[in-house]
Design goal:
There is one protein chain. This protein is mostly helical. Helix content is 70%, strand content 1%. The longest helix is centred in the middle third of the chain and has 32 residues, at 277-308. It is globular and about 65 Å long.
Length: 519
């Protein structure tokens, strides 16, 4: 339920419209390819996550194999990617509220202007973040009960929406009668949609399950089940929603061209176009509740991530304070709330925020295949409740695919996100200086590959195809070939730069507590 609530958030309300606008009917393929890509990434994390079930686990893995500098960079990226989902879900609720059609709700129409939040909209989004925070403030148990209710609602309403829209109007002609009509903007648009239309953003929310692994009973079994089942169900829902959205569009909309689709509240607006006013009311209600579910789940996940980072000895200890009867990391929750307010001020619409979240999340996920490959060399005898066969092949492929997906997020978003991640480095160096820069040469060498990799991806993004925001010096699809070759080289550099630090001893202690299924 946590996995489903995180994955089926605002993506179902905006993703279909954004993807159709970019790729036309071929957006269906974008959701399918995105699901396969994220499932492969998830398999790598299932192996690592079941080896080390702990709070904020995603912020810890790289420490074990490459030391504190690389661990800090990845934990910072992971925290930012989780944290940014709080404002995006708050913005999603506010954006849908801005088109409420009822007479009593006229006051909400001032929330958006020219596709951006107004000062009123910013205040409403801030209220939503307060709700996310304070439901988490009082224990995981309360949050779980609230979350389970919303998770059921998130599944039921999209299914009802699809059934009603198909019954009211479904035109197979919208899919196109030939290859050109099905893919009006070419094959590159499919990959642009994956990176820019909220597809990657929606699916990668599976990591919530791993970050909450310390609160899950029988983590060696249930982390795997939670991720696989939630990804499978959500993929079916998202693909079906995209098919229904395209088929249900009236000709008055499609005749203007796919790029002209511009709904503030896509499924509610579509229901109104088809004169199904009760459905629009249901969608408007769910559009308010659904992001609340994701916001609550990610407020918890982001706080776990931040509160676990002081264990790495490069952030103040008070961030990990959970000294209350509910064991909630309340200081981390408050810090996250304040940073979320800042992010809302910087990024004032759903589309832009989803691109930023996708790029930062993907950069943080680069650590997974590197850690998995390195652990096969460093700790071949560690307990692996879910041991993935062929990891020596899967890990470099996943690393290459993540690098490609970062490229799909489009220039200059890729560079902007890389800069935001680098901002976290001065904090590390202040704390490392206090500790006398111990083992600094090893830590720097273990991290150098990432610096080169991010710089290389930024350069390729700039030089790459105009379809992905570049100057078109390297044309599509040769830009993909360049990234695949470059990333493969970087992966093998990464796993050969591992080193045995004291954090690896911590990893062995945690792993020793893991119970295998046969135990």
């Amino acid at each position: 339920m946590f996995g489903l609530s995180a994955i089926i958030g605002s993506g179902w309300m905006f993703g279909s419209s954004q993807a159709a606008q970019i790729a036309g009917p071929a957006a269906i393929l974008a959701w399918i390819i995105g699901a396969v890509l994220v499932a492969m990434i998830a398999m790598v994390y299932v192996e690592i996550g079941t080896m080390f079930p702990e709070e904020g686990a995603m912020s810890r893995f790289t420490m074990y194999t490459h030391g504190s500098l690389l661990g800090h960079i990845f934990s910072w990226a992971n925290w930012l990617s989780l944290l940014a989902i709080l404002p995006i879900e708050a913005v999603a609720s506010t954006q849908y509220m801005s088109t409420w059609p009822w007479e009593w709700a006229q006051w909400t129409h001032g929330f958006m202007k020219d596709g951006q939040l107004t000062s009123q909209g910013l205040m409403m989004a801030a209220v939503m973040i307060l709700i996310f925070t304070f439901i988490n403030y009082w224990s995981v148990a309360i949050m779980a009960k609230f979350n389970n209710f919303i998770s059921v609602l998130k599944l039921v309403v999209p299914i009802i929406t699809m059934i009603v829209l198909i019954s009211a109007h479904f035109d197979f002609g919208n899919m196109g009668s030939n290859f050109q009509e099905f893919m009006p903007n070419g094959s590159a648009s499919i990959f642009v949609a994956i990176g820019s239309a909220g597809i990657i953003y929606s699916y990668v929310a599976f990591q919530t399950v791993i970050n909450l692994s310390n609160d899950i009973s029988k983590p060696s079994v249930n982390i795997r089940r939670g991720i696989i089942i939630s990804l499978l169900i959500s993929a079916l829902v998202y693909i079906a929603l995209q098919i229904v959205f395209i088929g249900a569009l009236p000709q008055s909309v499609t005749n203007g061209g796919w790029a002209k689709i511009n709904f503030n509240s896509p499924f509610a607006d579509l229901a109104i176009l088809l004169n199904i006013y009760w459905l629009s009311t249901l969608v408007y209600f769910t559009a308010f509740i659904s992001p609340v579910g994701s916001g609550i789940a990610f407020a918890s996940s982001a706080s776990k991530s931040l509160s676990s980072m002081p264990k790495n000895k490069h952030l103040p200890l008070f961030l990990s304070n959970a000294n209350n009867k509910y064991h909630s990391p309340r200081v981390a929750l408050m810090i996250n709330m304040l940073v979320s307010f800042v992010l809302i001020l910087l990024f004032k619409n759903w589309s832009l925020l989803s691109r930023v979240v996708a790029a930062s999340t993907l950069i943080s996920l680069l650590s997974g295949p590197v850690v998995a490959g390195s652990l096969r060399k460093m700790g071949p005898n560690l307990k692996r409740p879910t041991k993935i066969k062929g990891m020596h092949i899967l890990a470099p492929i996943v690393f290459d695919l993540i690098s490609l997906a970062i490229y799909w997020a489009m220039f200059p978003t890729t560079v902007e996100v890389i800069v935001i991640i680098i901002v976290g480095l001065p904090i590390y160096f202040i704390y490392d200086a206090r500790r006398g820069f111990r083992e600094f040469r090893q830590k720097l060498y273990a991290s150098l590959w990432l610096i080169v990799h991010l710089f290389g991806l930024a350069m390729i993004s700039w030089l790459g195809s105009s379809s992905f925001g570049g100057i078109n010096l390297v044309h599509y699809p040769y830009d993909f070939v360049v990234i695949l070759i470059f990333s493969t080289f970087m992966y093998f550099w990464a796993i050969h730069s591992l080193y045995y630090s004291g954090y690896f001893d911590d990893a062995k202690e945690i792993n020793a507590t893991v119970k295998m299924e046969d135990e």
